[in-house]
Amino acid sequence: MTESLYERLGGTEGITNIASDLIDIHIANPRIAPRYANSDVAEVKNGAATFFITGTGGPDVYKGQDMLATHKGMNIDSGEFMAVLDDALAALDKNNVGQREKEEVLYILYSMKSEVVFV
Ligand code: HEM
Question: Does ligand 1 have an atom closer than 6 angstroms to the CB of 48?
Answer without folding.
Answer: yes
